[in-house]
Amino acid sequence: MKPLLILLSLVALSFCMYAGYRLFRKCEKILSGYETMINSSQSLLAGQRRPFDVRRPLKVVCLGNSITRHGYLPAVEWYSDWGMAASREENDYCHLLQGRLRQYNGESSVTPLNIACFERNPACDIDSLLGDVCRGADIIVIRLGENVQDDQSFGDNIQRLIDRCKACTPHVLVSGCFWLNGRVEKVLVNAALDNKLKFIPLYWIGRMRDAYPRRGDAIYDTAGERYVVTKEFILTHPNDEGMASIANALFDAITCLEL
């Protein structure tokens, strides 16, 4: 009797093992199918995340302060109307960035807009501040921070500005300060991280030896007349070399954007 029970037990065990093996193979096949599907989806997504094509015409808007654009101000001996301390209009960072983009497409444009009042009063009406300048923009650069007086209020309101920009385009860049301010820099970095935006540090440019004009350097007014810089207010801004470094940093960031 015992040999028969042993035989039956072995047969039952063999059947269970075979059934288990079949079930395992079936599950393995199903899991393999899911893995293939996931890999295919990831490959598709990776294929969609292609670099920004600078060969097509791009409309870029730079939202900034006096470094971006400052109007005629005789009180500080600024007789120009472009990024402060650039010797000529074509040498400020916005026009240099536009020049680099136009090497790939002659119809690309970079529009500077001074919104320094947002730095001083972050609770201001953003819609009236920006108007229609950002409408139709492909890329918006938020290039602020140097004039912030209340970093708490700036931090509380920077999201409003980002949301307004993102309503125009998903491609928003946030730069750091040229004059490094640790508290403001932290606000800008966190805002970029929270919104999954590219952050471009610029403080290293401000620490370069030749990034500022020197007293006695020549710049030109809106009529093309040469004059000499004497006022400290202008001397704290980036010169042509500093402007070129900012433009290059922004251009590199644009070419790294993903669609």
Question: What can you tell me about this protein's structure?
Answer:
By secondary structure, the protein is α/β, with parallel strands linked by helices. It has two domains: 49 residues; 197 residues, Rossmann fold, CATH 3.40.50. It contains nine helices and seven strands; from the N terminus they run H-E-H-E-H-H-E-H-E-H-E-H-E-E-H-H. Strand 4, helix 6 and strand 5 form a beta-alpha-beta unit. Helix 5 runs parallel beside helix 6. The termini are far apart. About 9% of the residues have low confidence.
Uncertain regions spanning at least 5 consecutive residues? 26-48
The chain-level structural class is alpha/beta
* Separate helix tally: 9
Please tell me the total number of domains: 2
Q: How much beta, percentage-wise?
A: 5-15%
Fourth-level CATH superfamily of the largest domain: SGNH hydrolase
The rough form would be described as: globular
Radius of gyration: 29 Å
Specify the CATH architecture of the largest domain. 3-Layer(aba) Sandwich
Compute the number of strand runs. Answer: 7
Euclidean distance between termini CA atoms: 76 Å
CATH level 1 class label of the largest domain: Alpha Beta
Q: What does the largest sheet look like?
A: 5 strands, parallel
Helicity, as a percent range: 40-55%
H/E element sequence: HEHEHHEHEHEHEEHH
Question: What do we call the CATH topology of the largest domain?
Answer: Rossmann fold
Mean pLDDT: 87
Looking across the biggest beta sheet, what order are the strands in? 2-1-3-4-5
